[in-house]
Write a structure and sequence with these properties.
Distance between the termini: 28 Å
Number of strands: 10
CATH class: Alpha Beta
CATH superfamily: P-loop containing nucleotide triphosphate hydrolases
Number of domains: 1
Shape: globular
Largest sheet: 6 strands, mixed
Strand content: 15-25%
CATH topology: Rossmann fold
């Protein structure tokens, strides 16, 4: 249940998905624990590069960061070259110095929208943090405090719109739940949909696979 080392080994066994890289996305509602899991998983992978989508988004473009992701990250990694992107400074409201992301065996991407349509064909695996929207948002609001109340009011509207137009959960390979002593993994909707369907005698035929 809590064997992140075992999960890391499993990811390394997957075929590369973006050039020589296995891109692994961790998606879910804001406040659901994506960042913490990604940090722990990166450590279990021996220091895997980690891209946080907060570094690509801006106040004006909460989800309109796909061009930056494609040009600065996906294309270089697909060629086996380091990605170079300028992280956004949410306090100064401007992009900072360039940061490199090495084309390692596994590169992690975490953030709301990490499993979006643009990325899915490049992913070796997609994990979804299985926490309902309202609980996640309440956790996030408590974490950020009253100073960011206005930001959160706008964020929740934008997030709801994004997932209505481009949902990630239906394509997840695994659903990850936080439990008292770590995490619990369940098969995601994509895995369940790919499983052979056992036919009953009334339906005729035999089960495939």
């Amino acid at each position: 249940m809590n064997d992140l080392a075992g999960r890391a080994r499993g990811l390394l066994s997957l075929p590369p998905s973006c050039g020589p890289v296995r891109l692994v996305a961790i998606d879910g509602h804001a406040g659901s624990g994506k960042s913490t899991l990604a940090t722990r998983l990166a450590e279990a992978l021996g220091g895997a590069p980690l891209l946080r989508l907060d570094d690509l988004a801006t106040h004006e473009e909460l989800f309109a960061w796909t061009d930056r992701l494609r040009e600065q990250v996906l294309r270089p990694l697909s060629r086996g070259e380091p990605a170079r992107y300028a992280p956004y400074d949410w306090t100064a409201r401007r992009f900072g110095p360039l940061r490199a992301l090495a084309p390692a065996p596994v590169v992690l991407i975490e953030g709301v929208g990490a499993g979006r349509r643009l990325l899915r064909s490049r992913l070796a695996a997609l994990w979804w943090m299985e926490m309902d929207r309202d609980t996640s948002w309440e956790r996030g609001r408590r974490r950020d405090g009253a100073a960011l109340r206005g930001f959160w009011d706008g964020w929740t509207v934008a997030e709801e719109r994004h997932f209505a137009e481009d949902p990630s959960r239906p394509y997840a390979d695994a659903l990850v739940r936080q439990v008292s002593e770590g995490y619990e993994w369940l098969d995601g909707p994509r895995v369940a949909a790919a499983a052979p369907r056992n036919l009953t005698e009334g339906e005729g035929g035999r089960s495939s696979g």
